Amino acid sequence: MVLRNKLSARGLPGLEAGKHCDGAGLWLVKGDRKSGKWVLRVTVNGKRREMGLGRWPDVTLAEAREHADVARYSVREGRDPIRERQKRRREAQRDLHLFRDVAQDAFEARKAELRGDGKAGRWFGPLELHVLPKLGHVPIVEITQIDLRDCLAPIWHAKAETAKKALARTSICMKHAAALGIDVDLQAPEKARALLGKQRHSTSNIPAMPWVEVPAFYQSLDEGTVAQLALRLLILTGVRSKPVRFMTESQIVGDIWTVPAENVKGREGATSDFRVPLSSEALSVVAQARRHARGGYLFPSVRKGVISDATMSRLMERRGLEARPHGFRSSLRVWLAEETNARHEVAETMLGHVVGSSVERAYRRTDFLEQRRLLLERWATHVTCNPQRVIRLAEA
After folding, report:
1. Residues 53 and 104 grouped into a single domain
2. Where do the Tyr recombinase domain residues begin and end (predicted)?
């Protein structure tokens, strides 16, 4: 007969460091007089196993015996008590996965796919602002379409694009959770979309200035300020505002401006920087901008860093114009379509867009630099001509 209950709760504090048997495989392993751990030795499928039952004195002798009895019963039933406990812990962990933790984990997993590792916050922002404050503390397994509907209903029409992004990011988080083995409702985001209904908001394009009006506006930018020079360069090159604002001397070699890949939006799939040929007029603008350069940047802010994204917009707004700086990309694109015979892929490349499939791009290893150089020189000729006398350029 196996002897049990050899130890007494009162006598445990007086035991020296070492191993002390309570019987039937239950041991107290003491590191010193004040602390130790409970260990149960069992044989599972012919193999000797040691199962920890907790630290002493946090786990009392009576509790250790109860845990040991449960484990011994599992062994008699042919089950592995250690694996059973591990399974219970995994299930408990899955149940305790909060939405905010899964969302953060999903974001970390996708950083490599995002520009600048997502530091600008455009991917995580909709979740952080509109979903996590209400649902971040909720275990993700408990989130339903009703929760998502109630969360996004206040902005579904008022901030339509943001709401759609928030719901799309939530769907990604749900899929991420499922990949982790968490039992979530993958259909909850789509069911929430059905409950929210069709959005009243319709997306509108950024107002653009007709290309025939660009020369008059360009020539009105004649004060040589940082904002005006930046706006002139933006018009001449057709790039977005960020590459212009963060333009540095080191990016310019001869008449080629190399924009770092992290500053170029809309080129998913492209791994290289973007080369922009500078027309004679653009080089003149760069030369004028050098007078204002600070810290390597050609368009510095008054205080520190570079001019803000809104600086050029405010300039146009103060003049009572509806058009905005980003719209000059549209002005250039329409001019290319109406006034030149530029091929589609060349015109799109001028705007920094990736054209064609990955297979097409693998074989078409060119950025049409020389063709773009000629077209941008013609565009510069157009915007610098007499605003009262717009000349229709002959095809090259």
Report:
1. no
2. 204-376
Number of domains in the chain: 3
Domain match, 332 and 239 both: yes
Instruction: Give the residue-averaged pLDDT of 285-291.
Output: 95
Task: Give the per-residue pLDDT at 219.
Answer: 94
Q: Show the tokens assigned to 255.
A: 């008449």
Of the candidate ranges 27-31, 111-115, 122-126, the one whose mean pLDDT is the lowest: 111-115
Give the C-alpha separation, 314 to 325, whole Å. Answer: 10
Q: Both 76 and 117 in a single domain?
A: no
pTM for the whole structure: 0.55
Concatenated DSSP letters of 9-36 = TTTGGGPPSEEEEEETTEEEEESSSS-E
30 beta partners: 18, 36
Percent of the chain clearing pLDDT 90 (strictly above): 64
> Would you give the end-to-end CA distance of the chain in angstroms?
105
Which pLDDT band, with edges at 50, 70 and 90, does 354 fall under?
A: confident
* Residue 28 burial by Cβ neighbours in a 10 Å radius (0-12, 13-18, 19+): buried
User: Whose structure tokens read 């035991």?
Assistant: 15
Cα–Cα distance, 15 to 51 (Å, whole number): 22
- Provide the 8-state DSSP code for 263: G
Q: 237 and 350, same structural domain? A: yes
- 254 contact partners, CB below 8 Å, separation of at least 6: none
In a domain, residue 291? The reply is: yes
